[in-house]
Amino acid sequence: MELELEIKQKKFQSEYHKASVNLLYTSSWLNGKNAKFFKKYGVSPQQFNILRILRGQHPNPAKINLLMERMLDKMSNASRLVDKLNEKGFTERKICPDDRRACDVIISGKGLDLLERIDKNIETLNREVKTITIKEAKELNRILDKLRG
Predict the structure, then answer these.
(1) 66 and 54 in contact (C-beta within 8 Å)?
(2) Which of 33, 90, 103, 106 is geometrically suited to a Cys-Cys bond with 111, CB 3.0 to 4.6 A?
(3) Chain centroid to CA 140: how far?
(4) pLDDT of residue 148
Protein backbone atom coordinates (compact mmCIF):
# COMPACT_ATOMS: atom_id res chain seq x y z
CA MET A 1 0.00 0.00 0.00
CA GLU A 2 1.24 3.49 -0.79
CA LEU A 3 2.75 5.48 2.06
CA GLU A 4 0.32 8.37 1.54
CA LEU A 5 -2.63 6.04 2.21
CA GLU A 6 -0.95 4.30 5.14
CA ILE A 7 -0.18 7.47 7.07
CA LYS A 8 -2.92 9.64 5.53
CA GLN A 9 -0.54 12.34 4.34
CA LYS A 10 -0.93 13.73 0.84
CA LYS A 11 2.16 15.90 0.49
CA PHE A 12 5.80 15.70 1.47
CA GLN A 13 8.43 18.44 1.38
CA SER A 14 10.36 16.49 -1.27
CA GLU A 15 10.93 12.99 -2.58
CA TYR A 16 13.89 12.77 -0.17
CA HIS A 17 11.60 13.61 2.75
CA LYS A 18 9.09 11.02 1.55
CA ALA A 19 11.88 8.42 1.22
CA SER A 20 13.03 9.14 4.77
CA VAL A 21 9.50 8.84 6.20
CA ASN A 22 8.93 5.72 4.11
CA LEU A 23 12.10 4.09 5.50
CA LEU A 24 11.06 4.87 9.08
CA TYR A 25 7.51 3.63 8.52
CA THR A 26 8.65 0.44 6.79
CA SER A 27 11.26 -0.22 9.47
CA SER A 28 8.59 0.09 12.16
CA TRP A 29 6.27 -2.23 10.18
CA LEU A 30 9.02 -4.84 9.77
CA ASN A 31 10.05 -4.55 13.44
CA GLY A 32 6.46 -5.28 14.45
CA LYS A 33 6.39 -8.39 12.25
CA ASN A 34 9.71 -9.53 13.76
CA ALA A 35 8.53 -8.97 17.32
CA LYS A 36 5.37 -11.00 16.70
CA PHE A 37 7.37 -13.85 15.11
CA PHE A 38 10.00 -14.09 17.88
CA LYS A 39 7.43 -13.74 20.70
CA LYS A 40 6.31 -17.30 19.89
CA TYR A 41 9.78 -18.44 20.91
CA GLY A 42 9.94 -16.35 24.08
CA VAL A 43 12.63 -13.95 22.84
CA SER A 44 12.74 -10.46 21.40
CA PRO A 45 14.32 -9.66 18.03
CA GLN A 46 17.27 -8.10 19.90
CA GLN A 47 17.72 -11.26 22.02
CA PHE A 48 17.59 -13.35 18.85
CA ASN A 49 20.30 -11.13 17.37
CA ILE A 50 22.52 -11.74 20.43
CA LEU A 51 21.95 -15.50 20.16
CA ARG A 52 22.88 -15.50 16.46
CA ILE A 53 26.08 -13.61 17.19
CA LEU A 54 26.95 -16.06 19.97
CA ARG A 55 26.23 -19.02 17.69
CA GLY A 56 28.65 -17.53 15.17
CA GLN A 57 31.29 -17.30 17.90
CA HIS A 58 30.59 -20.79 19.28
CA PRO A 59 32.42 -22.53 20.89
CA ASN A 60 34.44 -19.40 21.71
CA PRO A 61 33.02 -16.93 24.22
CA ALA A 62 32.20 -13.32 23.37
CA LYS A 63 32.64 -10.16 25.39
CA ILE A 64 29.77 -7.68 25.75
CA ASN A 65 31.71 -5.17 23.62
CA LEU A 66 31.85 -7.63 20.73
CA LEU A 67 28.10 -8.16 20.98
CA MET A 68 27.47 -4.40 20.98
CA GLU A 69 29.67 -3.95 17.87
CA ARG A 70 27.82 -6.61 15.91
CA MET A 71 24.24 -5.93 16.99
CA LEU A 72 21.78 -4.66 14.40
CA ASP A 73 20.09 -2.35 16.91
CA LYS A 74 22.93 -0.18 18.22
CA MET A 75 20.62 1.37 20.83
CA SER A 76 20.03 -1.94 22.62
CA ASN A 77 21.58 -2.63 26.01
CA ALA A 78 23.60 -5.78 25.28
CA SER A 79 24.40 -6.42 28.93
CA ARG A 80 20.72 -6.34 29.92
CA LEU A 81 19.79 -8.57 26.96
CA VAL A 82 22.41 -11.12 28.00
CA ASP A 83 21.07 -11.06 31.57
CA LYS A 84 17.58 -11.88 30.27
CA LEU A 85 18.93 -14.65 28.04
CA ASN A 86 20.87 -16.00 31.03
CA GLU A 87 17.68 -16.10 33.12
CA LYS A 88 16.02 -18.14 30.38
CA GLY A 89 18.99 -20.54 30.21
CA PHE A 90 19.95 -19.60 26.64
CA THR A 91 23.40 -18.23 27.56
CA GLU A 92 26.08 -18.63 30.19
CA ARG A 93 27.96 -15.68 31.61
CA LYS A 94 31.33 -16.06 33.32
CA ILE A 95 33.83 -13.60 34.75
CA CYS A 96 36.74 -13.31 32.33
CA PRO A 97 39.89 -14.78 33.91
CA ASP A 98 42.10 -12.16 32.21
CA ASP A 99 40.01 -9.13 33.21
CA ARG A 100 37.72 -9.50 36.22
CA ARG A 101 35.70 -6.42 35.09
CA ALA A 102 34.76 -8.18 31.83
CA CYS A 103 32.45 -11.13 31.24
CA ASP A 104 32.67 -13.97 28.77
CA VAL A 105 29.31 -14.93 27.27
CA ILE A 106 28.66 -18.23 25.53
CA ILE A 107 25.51 -19.70 24.02
CA SER A 108 24.16 -22.71 25.91
CA GLY A 109 22.88 -25.97 24.44
CA LYS A 110 19.36 -24.71 25.14
CA GLY A 111 20.15 -21.54 23.17
CA LEU A 112 21.49 -23.55 20.24
CA ASP A 113 18.35 -25.71 20.30
CA LEU A 114 16.16 -22.61 20.23
CA LEU A 115 18.00 -21.21 17.20
CA GLU A 116 17.60 -24.55 15.42
CA ARG A 117 13.82 -24.40 16.01
CA ILE A 118 13.68 -20.80 14.81
CA ASP A 119 15.79 -21.61 11.72
CA LYS A 120 13.22 -24.20 10.66
CA ASN A 121 10.51 -21.52 10.57
CA ILE A 122 12.45 -18.39 9.58
CA GLU A 123 11.06 -18.53 6.03
CA THR A 124 7.66 -17.47 7.39
CA LEU A 125 9.33 -14.26 8.56
CA ASN A 126 11.13 -13.80 5.23
CA ARG A 127 7.78 -14.10 3.45
CA GLU A 128 7.10 -10.47 4.39
CA VAL A 129 9.79 -9.24 1.99
CA LYS A 130 9.15 -11.77 -0.75
CA THR A 131 6.58 -9.45 -2.30
CA ILE A 132 9.49 -8.05 -4.31
CA THR A 133 11.61 -9.93 -6.84
CA ILE A 134 15.19 -11.02 -6.21
CA LYS A 135 16.30 -8.35 -8.69
CA GLU A 136 14.35 -5.71 -6.74
CA ALA A 137 15.78 -7.00 -3.44
CA LYS A 138 19.33 -6.66 -4.84
CA GLU A 139 18.56 -3.12 -5.99
CA LEU A 140 17.03 -2.24 -2.61
CA ASN A 141 20.12 -3.60 -0.85
CA ARG A 142 22.37 -1.59 -3.17
CA ILE A 143 20.41 1.60 -2.51
CA LEU A 144 20.32 1.07 1.28
CA ASP A 145 24.08 0.40 1.33
CA LYS A 146 24.64 3.58 -0.72
CA LEU A 147 22.40 5.58 1.63
CA ARG A 148 24.49 4.54 4.64
CA GLY A 149 27.62 5.57 2.73
Answers:
(1) no
(2) 90
(3) 18
(4) 92
Secondary structure string (H, E, C) spanning the chain: CCHHHHHCCCCCCCHHHHHHHHHHHHHHHHHHHHHHHHHCCCCCHHHHHHHHHHHHHCCCCEEHHHHHHHCCCCCCCHHHHHHHHHHCCCEEEEECCCCCCCEEEEECHHHHHHHHHHHHHHHHHHHHHCCCCHHHHHHHHHHHHHHHC
CA atoms within 13 A of residue 134's CA, in its CB half-sphere: 0
What is this structure's pTM? 0.88
Q: How do residues 68-126 score in pLDDT, each as one tens digit?
A: 999 998 888 999 999 999 999 999 988 877 777 778 999 999 999 999 999 999 988 88
Residue 18 CA: distances (Å) to CA of 10, 21, 38, 120, 128: 10, 5, 30, 37, 22
CB 85 within 8 A of CB 51: yes
pLDDT of residue 101: 74
